[in-house]
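Problem 12. The chain below contains 146 residues. Write out its predicted structure in token notation.
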Amino acid sequence: METNIISHIAIVVKDINKTAKHYSELFGIPMPEIIYESKETGCCSEYFGKLVNCSYEIAFMRFGIMVLELIHPCSEENVWKDYFDRHGEGVHHIGFNIRDDKNIKFLEDNGMAIVQKTENKMGMNYYFDSNASLGVMIELCQKPQK
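Solution.
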């Protein structure tokens, strides 16, 4: 893969406000903004090739150069809700920033299928079925072209 810099680690949580508050207090960092994303806010998701009405809450907490992403799924059909239903709270994915589609093709060529695509204000996000080979899902994040 052309990138090997992890941009974030994401944890699926039951109560994003409570969890963010605990991290904030424990590590002495600012309480993050909790962002709600849905079709109404311009978020568009495709889950296993089907357009779905995906909604979720998300928060970003900076720890030096690393970002911890907290995600609370608010709708049924998405990768975060599936994970939560099977495992409860926990590490869901490792995210990498990409500039072009080369890394997407690379992962697909290595047997990792895209299970969800989500477009929002921050760009396009691709979630890959990499659990069997890597033990965790991989997300590739592509910021909008300027």
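Discussion. Residues 16-27 form the longest helix (12 residues). Students who got a different answer should revisit the alignment rule from Section 12.3.
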